[in-house]
């Protein structure tokens, strides 16, 4: 399988080269030259590793990493991704928060780290650049902590991540640096994108991307959708409501479906940053400045993976997609009644998916739905605990991380400052 840019320039690359490059030379995003067809299904009882192997193999075909795919999965996917039933008939929750930083990004960040450990052997020191609205940075920091030959620079917007998220970001030390920027997430992302697009800078200091635009983040996320869809025992295929910000996680679901995984509807559930929900509802895509919401990891005004969705939807098979946006008041309501109605405490992001499914139900949709739980509610205790009226116990790994000291360096919100930091 070869990879091309969504913008059509720059020729074709192998998967390994596309992983190392991060962004395509014309600043587009890498996509497979064509959507591959999956091989014979591993069946309803496939493990996460088996489902992952099945869905990833065609995307790795012919690449130097292909023989290591099984090893990468064993190294990266060391925790589960179960669909748990709820008290509402036909509504399950895909729990993606059992990794070290208690958010779904652990799957992809650890897979990317396992891949980079192999790809960078014997290379010059490389800096992984990552902009984060909260959870990406800690997942990438945890995954690359003490990986030889790699330095990690995490940029995050001051005051726009939860206290626990901020603490986590600065808690790694060693080769992992937290840089706090006075600005929005979109501005942090802009700084990273421009640095990655600066060929002269990259010649002096090798850079790589760990943002959700990286193929190494995108592809492994197909695994848990494939596994959940295969395991589903119901009248029709399983439909997914995915909390969405930069569209990395949800796009992986769409790509797995396009390749032939038995996935039904894909519903993009956004917070008040509604550009994607409006697009799914048939309006044009209009990026806007990000607004701050309770579901802060989705406070994205211009989804960095949108170009991939536009690419997929332009293919003959297209990609139907649904969307709903959810305001803060409704997020609060879904969290507050989560235990009574579902037997679950939801994080603010997951609450958006729950609300989206409830709207389907109210519109008469009786099919089986799966809400994707993107983070553990204990990561957002400031929002969640007052609403549910009791403390939410921390997962053990998160507790250990929060017990460590934490340190962040301020970084001015301009390209020259980041450049100077990288070259210092
Ligand atoms: C990152 C994140 C999201 C958004 O994921 P995208 O891939 O950017 O759409 C949703 N929920 C949580 C908890 C996150 O950390």
Blueprint (SSEs and pairs):
Elements (H helix, E strand, L loop, with lengths): L2 E3 L9 H7 L8 E3 L15 H13 L8 H8 L6 E3 L5 E5 L9 H15 L6 E6 L3 H10 L5 E8 L5 H7 L6 E6 L3 H12 L2 H6 L2 E3 L5 H4 L3 H10 L6 E6 L4 H12 L3 E8 L4 H6 L25 H8 L8 E4 L2 H9 L1 H5 L5 H15 L6 E5 L7 H8 L7 H8 L5 E3 L3 H9 L1
Parallel strand pairs: 4-12, 5-6, 5-8, 6-7, 7-13, 9-10, 9-12, 10-11
Antiparallel strand pairs: 1-2, 3-4
Helix pairs in contact: 2-3, 2-10, 3-4, 4-5, 10-11, 14-16, 14-17
The protein binds pyridoxal-5'-phosphate.
The site of pyridoxal-5'-phosphate has 18 residues, from helix 5 and helix 11.
Please, could you describe this protein's structure?
The protein is α/β, with parallel strands linked by helices and 424 residues long. It has helices at 15-21, 48-60, 69-76, 105-119, 135-144, 163-169, 185-196, 199-204, 215-218, 222-231, 248-259, 275-280, 306-313, 328-336, 338-342, 348-362, 381-388, 396-403, 415-423, and strands spanning 3-5, 30-32, 83-85, 91-95, 126-131, 150-157, 176-181, 207-209, 238-243, 263-270, 322-325, 369-373, 409-411. The strands form three sheets. A six-stranded mixed beta sheet has the order 3-4-12-9-10-11. Strands 8-5-6-7-13 form a five-stranded parallel beta sheet, with helices on both faces. The protein has a two-stranded antiparallel ribbon with strand order 1-2. The longest helix is centred in the first third of the chain and has 15 residues, at 105-119. It is globular, with a radius of gyration of 20 Å. Pyridoxal-5'-phosphate is lined by residues 103, 105, 135-136, 212, 243-250, 297-298, 349, 374-375.
